[in-house]
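> forwarded from #structure-qc
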């Protein structure tokens, strides 16, 4: 693997670390199976690309994409809390709706960003190559997002969200508005995913309506791999594990696809993903069996 491929894998891994943090909130903290991610990721990309091509600052476009993702998550939560639609079905309905919404926003299947300004070329200092600067900037963004998330979930509202996911009945008995906490948690979760979509569009040169396919699988894979590498019940370590999992997952994907002796091609991406997730799920079981024997 060349240095260019290695840094590229780190860059994409850091982008999907934001997706993994969002998935961690919905699946682990709220216990809400959320497939909205497959729609909110390209939603963030679409909003960001359309705003940038429309003359808006890349900073405002990125914020707009984050807010759009948050609104998508909020609607999914609303379908579940207010209309009493089952959580999984509510997220599927929103994911399907977002496909058409994204096409409407873009006015077509894709929006290119070729010579348009992005966060990366706006902030890139002279003398540093873009393939080096992009992973560095992404590292700063992910660290800030992780620290903000750690802080938020130690506040009163954050603890209320965690209590809702752990035991909603007990949380209600303690006076927690569990419905409101689900809405807030889903908004934060998909806001992070929308942010990831915006950054992905800016690094890949545009937004595409099909770019969200399999996003939820990547997010779950990152969470599972991270928890296998660094198992912990402490929130700070758990979010760190998720970030590490996303980077490791993407690194092994790039390694497998760039290794000629294995013979894998780009169309084998889903196969490699399935194998990695399977291994990550089996390893903890093997550890437990080994510990029982000894």
């Amino acid at each position: 693997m060349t240095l260019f491929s290695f840094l590229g894998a780190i860059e994409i891994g850091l982008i999907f670390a934001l997706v993994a943090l969002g998935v961690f909130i919905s699946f682990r903290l709220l216990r809400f199976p959320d497939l909205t991610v497959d729609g909110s990721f390209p939603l963030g990309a679409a909003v960001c690309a359309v705003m940038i091509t429309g003359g808006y600052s890349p900073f405002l476009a990125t914020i707009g994409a984050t807010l759009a993702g948050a609104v998508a998550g909020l609607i999914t939560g609303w379908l579940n809390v207010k209309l009493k639609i089952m959580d999984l079905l509510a997220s599927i309905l929103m994911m399907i709706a977002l496909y058409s919404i994204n096409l409407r926003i873009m006015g077509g299947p894709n929006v290119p960003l070729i010579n348009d300004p992005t966060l990366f070329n706006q902030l890139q200092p002279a003398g540093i190559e873009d393939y080096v600067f992009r992973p560095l900037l992404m590292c700063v963004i992910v660290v800030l997002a992780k620290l903000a998330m750690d802080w938020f979930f130690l506040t009163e509202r954050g603890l209320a969200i965690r209590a809702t996911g752990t035991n909603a009945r007990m949380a209600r008995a303690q006076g927690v508005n569990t419905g409101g906490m689900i809405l807030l948690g889903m908004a934060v979760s998909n806001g992070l995913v929308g942010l990831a979509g915006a950054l992905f569009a800016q690094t890949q040169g545009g937004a595409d309506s099909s770019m969200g396919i399999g996003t939820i699988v990547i997010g779950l894979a990152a969470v599972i791999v991270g928890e296998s590498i660094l198992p912990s019940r402490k929130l700070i370590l758990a979010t760190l594990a998720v970030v590490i999992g996303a980077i490791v997952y993407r690194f092994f994907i790039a390694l497998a696809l760039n290794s000629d002796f294995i013979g894998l091609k780009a169309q084998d991406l889903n196969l490699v993903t399935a194998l990695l997730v399977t291994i990550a799920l089996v390893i903890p079981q093997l550890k437990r069996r080994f510990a029982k024997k000894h």
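QC bot note: The longest strand covers residues 110-112. The CA atoms of residues 104 and 276 lie 36 Å apart.
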